[in-house]
User: Which sequence fits this backbone?
């Protein structure tokens, strides 16, 4: 522990006590890294505050001592933002897990940052509402982390990213100042939008402590279908027609290339094949709304029309919640890929919808030609331009991993895509951020960071170079 680290920890202990401040010797086997596989270092202490005021005290002390702080939520991130590194203080919001209020009149829920996403979803349903944002890590990711990464998930096409679910934020700045407000209004046009500045900032500009979430009317009807299509033009036609014609709109539009579909059905146990035959693309289509019977009837008619027109080659409609869950198990199978492909290189990238087929084709061809015998699995939320690419190359080394990343991000740059669709930049993508951000944009981001955190104590080295 450095001298400055010693002084900071002593001050933290004096102000907050051992209930909040845990020293390294008492950390035991506690996990200090997120899912990015970026290894954790040796933090000088772990802070687990119970209130916003304690967060404020902690950051004021760390700022005064120039003590770096790693901000942690549920540790489900994939970019290394929440991993604690050598010499840092780890600040976990895990004890701030209260659902402060559900306001049925304003259709809002106020929560502390450590509340798990699934708890929010369940509390909304109990109140007769719906919180639509959904991720595979719903049972462990926290609201603060979801806000920090501006996560998206499965229903972005209808409901938007996390940014669209947030009405108010309370946060603590690097110097301990508390900003923002727990506002419940859709319209709040009062100067610089600090709320949206903090959303997606990955803890580099402030520590989110409480959030006001926007709730939606609870759908009484959800219709789900698995569709087989012959080419990409048919996929985009289905998307456009569904968005224009379905009375409930499109709440999910998940596209799976054959590489992904074949691998999942061949390697993940207890999955049922939705359709007979082979198709160039498989689409999980879902719509939701308030009129269950009318929606279900129209959904069936819509699919029948597209089958007659030849847009869809085959389709299976979920006749029960169990059927729908079986469809979603195929799409959610990547949760098991860590054991099936422990050395895989994962990418979360986005393109204009029109460029997705070309991007996927170029990426898979590059992998096949450069690394014969490799697997390149492609799937994603096509309606919002986000695809996931998982690459598993034989005898992979760090050098091969870096080469694969260079190839993939080269295609992203060529097609004007984004190096990160929804998982953030962290430390893993910092070096490639310039492929999708101009020098002037990076300069503006650096200026904002320096203005709000002049001593560079909040998540240093994440997003921007420390």
Assistant:
């Amino acid at each position: 522990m450095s001298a400055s680290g010693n002084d900071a920890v002593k001050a933290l202990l004096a102000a907050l006590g051992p209930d909040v401040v845990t020293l390294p010797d008492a950390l035991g086997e506690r996990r200090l890294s997120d899912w990015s596989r970026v290894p954790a270092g040796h933090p000088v202490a772990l802070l687990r505050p119970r209130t916003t005021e304690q967060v404020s005290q902690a950051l004021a002390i760390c700022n005064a001592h120039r003590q770096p702080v790693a901000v942690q939520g549920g540790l489900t991130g994939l970019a290394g933002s929440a991993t604690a590194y050598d010499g840092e203080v780890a600040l976990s919001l895990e004890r701030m897990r209260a659902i402060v209020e559900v306001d049925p009149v304003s259709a809002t829920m106020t929560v502390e940052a450590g509340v798990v996403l699934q708890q929010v979803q369940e509390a909304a349903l109990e109140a007769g509402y719906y919180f639509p944002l959904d991720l595979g890590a719903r049972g462990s990711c926290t609201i603060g982390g979801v806000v920090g990464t501006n996560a998206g998930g499965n229903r972005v096409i209808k409901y938007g990213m996390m940014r669209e679910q947030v009405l108010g934020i309370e946060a603590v700045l690097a110097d301990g100042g508390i900003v923002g407000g727990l506002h419940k209004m859709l319209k709040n046009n009062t100067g610089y939008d600090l709320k949206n500045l903090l959303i997606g900032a990955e803890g580099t500009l402030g520590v989110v402590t409480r959030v006001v979430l926007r709730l939606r009317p609870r759908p009484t009807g959800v219709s789900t279908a698995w569709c087989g299509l012959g080419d990409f033009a048919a996929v985009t036609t289905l998307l456009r027609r569904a968005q224009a014609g379905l009375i409930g709109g499109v709440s999910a539009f998940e596209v799976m290339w054959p590489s992904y579909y074949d691998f999942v059905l061949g390697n993940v146990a207890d999955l049922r094949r939705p359709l007979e035959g082979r198709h160039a693309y498989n689409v999980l289509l879902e719509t939701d709304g308030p009129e269950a019977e009318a929606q279900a009837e129209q959904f069936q008619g819509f699919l029948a029309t597209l089958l007659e027109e030849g847009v869809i080659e085959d389709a299976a409609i979920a006749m029960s919640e169990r059927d729908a869950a079986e469809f979603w198990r195929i799409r959610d199978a990547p949760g098991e890929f860590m054991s099936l492909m422990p050395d895989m290189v994962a990418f979360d990238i986005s393109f204009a919808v029109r460029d997705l087929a070309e991007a996927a084709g170029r990426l898979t061809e590059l992998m096949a030609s450069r690394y014969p015998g490799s697997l390149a699995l492609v799937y994603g939320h096509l309606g919002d331009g986000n695809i996931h690419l998982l690459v598993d190359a034989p005898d992979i080394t760090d050098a091969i991993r870096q080469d694969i990343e260079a190839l993939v991000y080269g295609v992203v740059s060529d097609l004007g895509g984004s190096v990160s669709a929804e998982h953030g930049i962290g430390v893993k993508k910092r070096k490639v951020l310039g492929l999708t951000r101009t020098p002037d944009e990076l300069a503006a981001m650096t200026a904002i960071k320096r203005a709000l955190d002049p001593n560079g104590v909040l998540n240093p080295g994440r997003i921007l170079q420390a």
Q: What stands out?
A: The first helix runs from residue 3 to 16. Residues 221-334 form a domain with the Alpha-Beta Plaits fold (CATH 3.30.70.2190).
